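Most newcomers find our protein records easier to grasp once they have seen one. The structure tokens are whole numbers drawn from a learned vocabulary of backbone shapes. The record below serves as our worked example for the rest of this section.
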Amino acid sequence: MSKKKAILRAAAEETFAQELKSIKAEDKGEKPSNWELSPQGVLLYIMGGKTKKGKPITPKYFGQRRLVELSIATLLTDRALLLIGIPGTAKTWLSEHLAAAISGNSRLLVQGTSGAGEDTIRYGWNYAKLLQDGPSQEALVESPVMAAMKTGKLVRIEELTRIPSDIQDGLITILSEKQLPIAELNTAVRAVEGFNVIATANDKDRGVHELSSALRRRFNTVRLPLPATLDEEVEIVHYRIKQTQKATDLKAIKEEDIRQLITVFRELRNGHTLEKDQKLKVPTSTLSTAEAISAINNCISLQVHFGQDKGAQDMLAESIVSSVIKEDAHDRLVLQEYLEAVMKMRKDWKGLYHACKSIIDRG
């Protein structure tokens, strides 16, 4: 008998199925049509805490509670929700968990790309059936948006501003009239109660295509900031790393090493030291919380599998240099100046300074 293959990444509603079940069992709040939980139940699931019977609920989002309340309140109305922020502010993470808690299904997903066509938002055709029988319901291929409209679920649209403007505007009728016309069949799909859209957009590079004013008016925008403090960002990184790494592998890196990497990222990202007493040049790389998590996971993997003859700070330095230097000439200069002006001057950072300098010097 063959061994069942493990799924690389389970959906939120699968990973946290037990928590959702516990909340639902005790949720006495009023549930909007086709919602799995009440708004209060959704908030508990996202922000974490305990059910009335004391069952622990892990936090899914570590930012401001008010932003989550605004997001849930928007989805109770007939307006769609746009989560906006620079990369790494947990836009996708929050949208997935909102869909999991509200609809019980986070997999109705449109991934925005510059090559997205009309079928991405509206519908497509099975061309073999189309050529054989002409336009028909059997030949129609539903988009995730259409599937969500029919079932009263939330649909997620990632990186909305990467979708060409004329394709984006296909959402206007859907969001305004709550229906999707199918001209070829002289009919339309009407949205069932519970349907809504959660879109995300990156305001770092503003994607490829700006939203038209007509489409923007149909969204309530919630801007997600980066963590306000170093301690808050360290807490987020710790939590996410524990989710992805084995307990034994976590010993490969010290908490102080994690704190140093996040400090480097925050200072270069913000353009000044934590004490705000020294201005710094900013690299082209985003150096977001998500990139910090990725860098530390990379550091742990390097240390566990290839670092037997090296110290953890050598691995940490590799992760810092590869994360900061994206466009060689400018970013290399930024990091070199940071090493000499900031890192070298810190008493407990000598090991990391020499490790980073060694990597840069050897090119």
User: Anything to note?
Assistant: The domain at 12-223 is CATH 3.40.50.300 (Rossmann fold). The chain has two domains: 12-223, 230-361. The radius of gyration is 24 Å. The longest helix spans residues 289-306.
